[in-house]
Amino acid sequence: MSRAARFAAVYAALTASHELADHWVQTDHQSVRKGLHGPEGRTACLRHVASYTATQALALAALRRLDPGLTPTRITAALAISAVTHYVADRQGGRWRDPNPRGVARLAHTIGKTGWLTRDPHAPYLMDQSWHKAWIAVAAAVAAAGRP
């Protein structure tokens, strides 16, 4: 399998499992609390990211059964990229419109997204999901690299 085909297969598996984990596997408790300040928010976010990463790992394990040439090392690296960047974004939890945002929300405001985030009720979700999908692409590229 070519690297390009491997990338496409991994991206599809990671994206499908992202959708499942972010919308079906994540609990309401995690969704509501993952952005809170302090240990309660960190714990809720860590639990969400753990189930999210497990869901993606299952998808890549299933894909690996098709023998696309994925190595355990590259799979682990891809899952780590996805998990860490997912945690970073999800700690924003409901604070995209804060006057003094932090993290990824601060980045969005810094690059001029304040107006959109203020006007469009869907903007925070779209910013969050586009962040995840961009990092999933990076993770897929890492997993797909290596032998042709």
Structure description:
It contains seven helices and no strands. The protein is mainly α. It has one domain (3-144).
Can you describe this structure in just a few lines?
This protein is mainly α and 148 residues long. It is built from seven helices and no strands.
List keywords for this structure.
148 residues
Oligomer: single chain
Instruction: Please give the radius of gyration in angstroms.
Output: 16 Å
H and E order = HHHHHHH
Largest sheet: none
In total, the number of domains comes to 1
- What's the total count of β strands? 0
Count of alpha and pi helical runs? 7
The helix content, as a percent range, equals over 70%
Kindly report how far apart the N and C termini lie.
7 Å
List unreliable stretches of 5+ residues: none
* Overall form: globular
Mean pLDDT: 93
Structural class: mainly alpha
β-strand amount = under 5%
Protein name: DUF3307 domain-containing protein
Topology:
Blueprint: H1 3-25, H2 28-33, H3 39-64, H4 72-90, H5 103-110, H6 114-119, H7 123-144
Helix pairs in contact: 1-3, 1-7, 3-4, 4-7
Protein name: DUF3307 domain-containing protein
